[in-house]
Amino acid sequence: MYKVDLPVDNSADVAVERRRAAEAARQARIFNTRHRVMGLDLKALEQQVVENKEREEMAGQRERALDMLRVTQDEVLMKQQQEEEERRAELNRDLIQYRAIRQRAEDTRDADLNVHRQGALGLSIPIPESELGPASMQVFQGEGIGDNDKRRAQMEQTERALRAQREQSEKLQKEKKLKELLKGKELVQQDLRAVQLDALEEECKRAGRIALNNYNHAQAAECVEKERKERMRREGKEMAEVWHMVTSDILTECPKAAERQVDGGPVGGPRVLTDRWRGMSPVQLSAIRRQREEQRLEGKRLREIEKQRDAAWDFQRMVQTREDEEEERKAMELKKEKRIEMDRYNEQLARDQREHQQYLSKTLYTNRPTARYFTQFSSSSR
Q: HSE of 283 in the Cβ direction (CA atoms, 13 Å)?
């Protein structure tokens, strides 16, 4: 036969190498603690990330809205402050204008005493003007033009203002006097009306007092008549009671008067009237003593019977107590025997357990595990 060189089939080796590489990649992926995702809920983590982003976005929107609100409030506040400053400036300008027009220094009573006004202008300087320098000049060129006309116009304006004030004051005085006159007339009318009302009220009071006096007189007469009739009725009643007491059986002490016959009663005998009773008869007393003696003997007999019954109950309780003590003693002995038997059983269990532990530690578990035994775990991905 001819020798033929056939190609070697290494597909099995390639498959083994492929499986080994896949196993190595799988182990690297599984045992890598930084990239391992097994046992994690990726959907829940992604949901948490989305929720955190939404929460942060909402917080940012809220912060931006608050910033806009703060800016708006600051602008409103600045606008209010600016309006307040403008209002104050306008008030200051009005005040300065009012003072310049209504409160001038030359319009005061002591205007002529000011140094810079009439008194100062009328002073004469003993030094000649030719010897004075520029710093000693009192009036410069161009000053005081139209000053007299201005002063005259101001005086006329002041006079008109004073005249208007005087007329306004006179008008107010007339109105005040008219009001006082009207008020006085009204007070007079009120006084007259009050006097008339007082007279009418006094008349009504007088008529009321007369009617009240008449009513009181009638009431007094009626009360006197009632008292007289009541006194006569009371006296007649007292006389009838005295007559009844004199003619009744109370003063005669009749024993039959203290008894009355009752029909249909519980006993059927006569019943005693307490307000007329004068004591019991000897027959009744003897019957009461006899009944009391019978009750005493009956009570003595009942006490003897009660004493005998108590003695019988005491004897019965003593017998029962003895029987209970005997049963308790037997129960204690039985319990003691059971405890002794249980102690013996527990000692036997303890001996068996010690023997089993000695068998486990000295006979069965004698081969100790080495380090190679622990390295065989978690060495494969399967």
A: 0
Per-residue model confidence as pLDDT tens digits over 55-93: 999 999 999 999 999 999 899 999 999 999 998 888 888
Whether 248 contacts 241, CB under 8 Å: no
Burial per residue of 79-99, b for 16 or more beta-carbon CB atoms within 10 angstroms, e otherwise? eeeeeeeeeeeeeeeeeeeee
Quote the tokens at residue 68.
């806009």
Pairing of strands 270-272, 259-261: antiparallel
Give the distance, in angstroms, between the CA of residue 191 and the centroid of all CA atoms in the same chain.
58
Instruction: Identify the H or E element spanning 275.
Output: none
State which residues of the chain have pLDDT below 70: 1-8, 33-41, 109-147, 248-278, 380-382
Residue 22 CA to residue 28 CA, distance in Å, equals 10
Q: Other CB atoms closer than 10 Å to residue 33's CB: what's the count?
A: 6
Give the CA count within 13 Å in the CB-facing half-sphere of 191. Answer: 6
